[in-house]
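Task: sequence design from structure.
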């Protein structure tokens, strides 16, 4: 069974709010790096960058994080920018949903291989039932779920988030 938890208008409002929260936390930075986990995470990161760009003169640098979500250790986690560019920078890691937390924890682990100034996590939907200790700093929606539930986000034609059980 699928139940809509966020519609197109709500996703747009959540994206705008998250962008403002990011600006509140990084207003002293000359540059903000926004890393989107490939797939919907990157699409959501693009939208956040679009909102950030409307409201600041800071340089916003978007990059993609390529990760095997099912088996993160089987393939090297890669960034679409040189990793050393992140040294002494503020980075916001973005994914559409934090389900188990596995993808996010491995992305964090890889990012922390650099000397970051700060690392923040943003997500559209934060599922509260997870297996790994990931805390999101910027959240569109927190949702309590059971282990049998899942969140499915469609960014594209529909722009909708579903609770699937």
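Answer:
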């Amino acid at each position: 069974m699928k139940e809509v938890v966020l519609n197109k208008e709500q996703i747009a409002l959540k994206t705008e709010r998250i962008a403002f929260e990011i600006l509140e936390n990084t207003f002293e930075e000359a540059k903000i790096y926004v890393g989107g986990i490939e797939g919907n995470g990157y699409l959501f990161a693009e939208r956040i960058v679009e909102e950030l760009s409307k409201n600041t003169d800071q340089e916003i640098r978007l990059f993609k994080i390529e990760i095997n979500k099912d088996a993160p250790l089987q393939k090297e986690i890669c960034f679409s920018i040189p990793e050393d560019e992140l040294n002494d920078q503020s980075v916001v890691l973005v994914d559409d949903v934090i389900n188990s937390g596995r993808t996010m924890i491995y992305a964090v682990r890889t990012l922390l291989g650099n000397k970051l100034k700060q690392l923040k996590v943003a997500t559209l939907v934060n599922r509260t039932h997870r297996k790994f200790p990931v805390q999101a700093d910027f959240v569109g929606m927190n949702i309590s779920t059971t282990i049998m539930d899942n969140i499915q986000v469609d960014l594209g034609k529909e722009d909708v988030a579903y609770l699937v059980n």
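The chain has a mean pLDDT of 88.
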